[in-house]
Structures are given as C-alpha cells and as structure tokens.
Request: fold
Amino acid sequence: MSIFLGVDTGGTYTDAVVLDSARDIVLGKAKSLTTRKDLALGIGRAVDAAMEAAQISAAEIAMVSLSTTLATNALVEGQGGRVALVFIGFDEADLDRGGLAEALGGDPVIRLAGGHGHAGQESAPLDLAALDAAVRTHSVVGFAVAARFATRNPAHEIAARDLIRQVTGRPVTCSHELSANLNGPKRALTAVLNARLIGMIDRLVTACEAHIKTRGIDAPLMVVRGDGALISAAMVRERPIETILSGPAASIVGARWLTGASDALVSDIGGTTTDVALLKDGLPEIDPLGARVGGFRTMVEAVAMRTTGLGGDSEAHLLTEGLEGGFFLGPRRLIPVSLLAVDHGPMVHAALDRALSMEAVGEFDGRFVIPMGFEPAGLTAREAGLLARITAPMPLALALTSRLEAAAMDRLVARGLVMLSGVTPSDASHVLGGLADWDASAAEKALRLLGRRRNGRGERVGTDPALLAQALIDQLTEQTATCLLEAAFGEDARFAEEDGAVLARHPLLRAGLNQHRGVVELSARLGVPVIGLGASAPYYYGAVGVRLGAKMILPEHAGVANAIGAVVGQVSQRATGLVSSAGEGQFTAHLAYGLERFTSRDAALAAMEAALIAEASARAKLAGADDLLITTTRDIREAEVEGQPMFIEAVLTATASGRPRVAHPVAKEVDGELAITGTVYGSTL
Reply:
C-alpha cells in the first residue's frame, strides 16, 4: 500500500497528485481553481481529476497529505479575523516591541497584572474577575493569551485560557504552547497571528476531510508544517500558525524529489507570493530566528525562506511620481480580470465596454469587488453598510458611494470578507498568448482602460495593450530577479553582515548583470542553478534565468511540486525545556505542569530530559507518527568562578520523528487463511 494522495491549496489553484512512493513515480496530477467561498469544491475537483488520471480506487490510497499557502498569503496580505490579545504582566511599551502593535492592527488588547519572574515565581496575582468582565465586551473570532515569562511558568496563561473558553466558547491560543523561547512580545505576536488563522485553516482541513470521506478514502489526513515535517489534521487545528510556509516548505521537499539537486536556489511562484530558499547539500536550512512572513518575525520553526508578495495575480500599481512612470507589482493579490470574466463574463465585459466608450477616464478604473460570503464579526457601522451593498460581483466604483468608504473597503479586504479584481501579470500573459486558461478578451479591455491613465508627464500610459502587457511581464521578471538576488546575498557567507536588499539593488551589481563594458568592465551572475516551480514558472522564469545569467531548471512536474512535497515528508515533533539554578545546590526543572526543585544538577537534567522525551513522543504520536526515533540535546551554560565551573542554566531538547502512520492494515496468509496484521509505511524523503 504505497499510494499517497497529495493536495496543495494555494491562493489561485488547488493541486492534487497521486504518487506511488514505492516506485517514486507520479501516477496522476490535476489542478483546479481554489474556491475561497467553499474550499471543498476546488479540493474535490482537483482530487477527483488526479485519481481519474492515475486510474486508482479510493481503497488504494494509504495516506492523504495537505500543504497550503493560505496562511502565508493571509499574513502577507494582512488578512485574518479580528482577535483580542490578553496581555498579562506586560507594560504598555511592550506592545510596540517586535511588531506586535502592527500585527494587532487596532484589534483589542486586554492588559492585566500578573505573570511570573525569570525563575518561575509569581510576580502578581491574576485578576480572573477583571478578565471575565473584559472578554464579554469584545466581538472577536478568537483570543491570544501571552503572560510574562510563561515559558518558565505557564500557570496564568492556562488559567486565562480555561476561563475564556468557558465564558465565550471561542478558540484560545496560549503563547507557551507555540514556543518555549523567551521574548514575551514576540511570543504574543505569534499567538495573535495563530488566533487570527484558526478559522481559515479549520475551514481548509474540514473541506479536505469532507471530500476524502465522500470519496470513501479511509486514510489519515496529514498537514505539512513550515519546516517540511508532517502533523495530523487534529493538531494543526490548534496550531495553524505552524502552517505558515507550509506550501513553500513542501515545494522545497518536492524540488529535491523532482530534480535530485543538491545545491540550488528554489523559487516557487504562485498567484500571491514568490518563495525562495536555498538547497544546500540536498537540505534546506531552518531559520534560527523563526519564520518571517509578511514583515512579521514569528517564533515558528520553519525553513529559511524569503517570501515576497509577488505572484502571477499581484496587483499592478501604476507609478505616477516622477517623469519615467512604470509599474510595481504586489504585495496584494487580486482576482485577475480575465479569471473573473470566466464566471461573470456579461457583467465584466459590460462594465469595461461602458468605460471604454467614454472619452474621459471615469471613476471606474477597471477594478471589481467580489463578496466572499463569510459571516462578518466586529464590523463598524460603515463597514457593515458597505458589505451589505456588495451582494454580487460588481464594479468597485458602484460599491463605493463616497471616497470616505475607501478605507472601509480596505478593511473588508483585510478581513477576507471581499476580494478585489483588477489587472495582474496573469492578465498580461493572456493578452500576450503565454497563458490561455481564462478570458483574454476581458484582459485586453482592462489593459486598454489602464492605458488611458496619465503618467508623471501627464501623458496617457499607452494605447497598445500588448506593449502594456509586456511592460508588466518585464516588471515581474525584474522583481523576481531581485527576490533571488536578495536570497543569494543572504546565503553567501561573504555578505552575511550586509543588507541583501541594498546589495541586490546596487547600481554596480545592476551594471554587472547588464555586462557593462566601458572604461570599467563589470560582469555578475548568479552562482548556483535556480529550480523554478509553479504552474506559470515555464512561462515566466526563462527570462529570469537570462537576467541573472543562471541555469534555470524547470522540472516536468513543477506545477504540482507542493503537492508532491506534501506526501514525501516525515513527522517530527520537538519539545524544549529549561533547568535553572538559583544558587549552589538549588536546581529547578521548569516542567509543563509547574516547577520541580532538586539538590542535584544531574537529577534535574534527567527529570527534564525524561519529561521532554515523553512530551515529544506523545506529540509525535498525536501528529500521526509511528516507529519513533528519539534524539536529545543539552545546551549547558556555565560560568567560571574562582577557577571552578558554576552552573547557570541548561536548555534541553527532545525530538521525536517517524514515518507517517497509514490507515490500511496488511493482508498476509497465515496457515492458508487471510489474516490482517501490521501496518504499512510509505517511503519518505
């Protein structure tokens, strides 16, 4: 039983692939548009088509694994539900640290006395009565709880979590459950983002579970984590933040499987983002500072990935400052006009034709707004009134009754309640004939309308849609090359201390890429191959390779690399703990259930290590692993006092990893009869 089904849900497409892991071959693959309003539709169409192409039955599938870029995209685009942060034992100034205030974006904060000291002792009592009163006043989709030094003693976070769940019934994320590291504001930021993503990821997992059940697939559902490891669907519902960079991590695993390359930059272009990482000796690096997505540095362990809001569906911004003009792409994703016209052609064409028939440029700029059909929560009166008018896809200008509503529209977009449609590189590709999946005529009209706008000289941008389309593709090439250069400088030891973004845009480097010949001759190129992934990579990345003077590898199944990576990984769970010392002969193990004191250093270390092994093993089994391999590390920190070592503290880590558990038992013959015993595992990377 070696047949695995991989599913990847991205911002534009949902991919499915059927893989025979015993023979390392792809049996079938398919793509379907991601259906944001009902994710099950897009998942179902992709899965059904892939199974049909592979000519397999539901009973043959031993495991289903899911990767996604939805969480990554949401953070890059600033989307997610309204949440409240319960901030225990912190000062007001702590909200301004680590980007926490920016991540909250005006969402409510409930600040309470409490928390603990660095040794785990209570700093002040937690006022549960005040918390009870406060949580009843906020209409939010979930809560994040962060207490001072909660990783040394989580008692106040646990007490707050239990009360909030009892009072509101809403999901609650505790910061100590996501990271064992210090830095309270950064843990709080990670908890806030986790709480914001719970609803979105729950909808995705539920949609996938529903379809595989409908198809009669009796196999466990796994989900790819940001470090490429797999976890169970049940676990990811509680910790959706771990799926940020899930899709990119799966793409790296898929790139390695597809190409066998040991050293290369992997660049995956989707509809919303471009994700770049370095394969070194066949393995990706893990980011020691935590995953950075959408400008936020989290405490989530993930591959060292640079994610930029640049993709085939990135919003095209016309630059009107200065005399040169031009375009800039991203970071927000729009529904391409050519795609919107597939399902709403009469409305789209009528609006574009009406605008093009006018001599002057009217209020309609070629953008549309589409309701997503989700239940709103915590909206202002202006936002609620605006949303109520958007009952169906319509020109954006018709939805807005005044300029004051533009900010309200941006907030509805950020909450994921509506999406905008407008000109994107995907539209340009349809005009130029590189892509032919959607309505090229609608794209041509939208570009013609865009060309009527004025540049910095007061002149119209252009009258030829094909030239405008090429300008957009050229801009995508340039921004993609910059993404790759930033990643390359970041990974090059010679430039480790430099700002990669500055170096990537330096005039001397640009002259070198252009092979400048003059009194000074300059040459520059990328020193490693680039593996281009994504459905549109074969169309876009040839020009990128030429721009960087790099070898471009475009594998056969580049368009479904994420779905492939989703089914060739392992399950891995890690638990970290601290042993500290308050003085000679005093050793404290900071265990999950509280503090335990010892008079012997070795006894404290042994107790902590045993607890961590048990915790990591339990997590790995919950995550869907069997046949566990346990590894442990001890980072003991000492100081020398009068020539003798003095114990300060030790950070211990236990990691449990294993192959994913599959559902189907093995049938074998015993004394002439068929008996069902044992468990079969698929091959892993």
